[in-house]
Amino acid sequence: MSLPHAILTALLEKKSSGLELTRRFDRSIGYFWSATHQQIYRELGKLEADGLIRALPSEQPARGQKKSYEVLPAGRAELARWTSASQDPKPHRDALLLRLRAAAVVGTAGLEADLRRHLELHERQLAEYEEIEERDFPPGRDGAEVRLRHLVLRAGIDLETFWTQWLRRALADFAELPDGGPAEQV
Amino acid sequence: MSLPHAILTALLEKKSSGLELTRRFDRSIGYFWSATHQQIYRELGKLEADGLIRALPSEQPARGQKKSYEVLPAGRAELARWTSASQDPKPHRDALLLRLRAAAVVGTAGLEADLRRHLELHERQLAEYEEIEERDFPPGRDGAEVRLRHLVLRAGIDLETFWTQWLRRALADFAELPDGGPAEQV
DNA sequence: ACTGTTTATGCAACTAGTTGCACAAGGTGA
DNA sequence: TCACCTTGTGCAACTAGTTGCATAAACAGT
Question: Which range marks the domain in which residue A163 is found?
Fold first, then answer.
């Protein structure tokens, strides 16, 4: 139940249309809360109906016509409420770890190539984060807002660092395993 | 679409009833693929209908009567197929990171207490993983199956280590921030 | 006997996210 | 000027996961 809050945050950072939001979700917010454009448009409709945001009255709202939104005071209040409310962490689900556990019983055949592919994806993501860090967070004392955003980026960098290291270890382990793995014994 | 495969894996490790599966999801598989008992029973029904598992014919199947399942050859084949097939990583969603980003625009009031609570939860989880490692994976050369399972546990340990360190850094940063944060400026 | 608790199975309704597609406006090139 | 591509908005159906509750047997206490 956090997509509306992700949208409120993005809109507070900058008033945007649906498509602009979609683009920013692909680059920034979406790194830790992804959403498709269909979700975003649906949610914008709900948020507007609930009086948390409103469309900027600049242009006539027609299909194929850009429509920008801004956050209303009620929206900011709701976001502040949600941010400060205590929340339990949601259980994670990670298909790759599950597949490794499955490989322990049905064999590792074919898995190594995909581990390699995942390693590449995580390396690329890590490089992207590090570029953002270099560009947007040069060393030096910053205000609270910048430091908080930097903290979030650090989480992304450290997570990708973890994954690349773990995947490298996994691949090294695979190299020592008998070909095909446990399935041989079946 | 991985709950069926999580169940197949768990059943291959050990034939179980719905409740036994539920318990094991709470302790072990569930660390990276959680599921409620309702989900598990529903999925067991589907897997049986699809001919991937079957109920052990020992006892009469009545409500309130334990019913154990085992994996059929078709189920093992499907799990092997799924494990070796290439899969894209699913986009993550992390409410805590989103809240931090929101806090950058609406203020950090109330957030610190919850960060502290999350830190405690992750410390507890880390301790639990380390206990499991000590108990189930004593040092020494192991077979492929044990090494794969250890690798999965290492991922859990490293992830929890990341979170505890990141949260400690976040709390240290908070201590230096002006009280309440950016909301002050509003 | 009867009350309550634990173990065990399961259905139904709801919420959130995904996938596939449709529609409209404006620009580009043949 | 017609066919096609891009930009922008949006609906509908589907899939996966969550929440709330119902049912039944076994057992323990009184």
Answer: 95-185
The closest alpha carbon to B100, from B170, B178, B179, B185, belongs to B170
Nearest CA in chain A to B181: A144
- Answer whether any strand C atom is within 7 A of the Cβ of A50: no
Identify whether residues A109 and A39 lie together within a single domain.
Answer: no
Using CB atoms, pick whichever of A93, A144, A154 lies closest to residue B182: A144
User: What's the average pLDDT block by block, 10 residues per block, for chain A (186 residues)?
Assistant: 94 92 92 94 94 78 70 95 93 94 93 95 95 92 89 96 97 79 48
Assigned domain for A90 exists: no
**How far is the C-alpha of A103 from the C-alpha of A123, rounded, in Å?**
24
Nearest CA to B123 out of B154, B92, B155, B168 is that of B168
Please check whether residues B53 and B133 belong to one and the same domain. no
Residue contact B89–A166, C-beta within 8 A: no
CB-strand contact B66/C, under 7 Å: yes
Instruction: Tell me how many domains chain B contains.
Output: 2
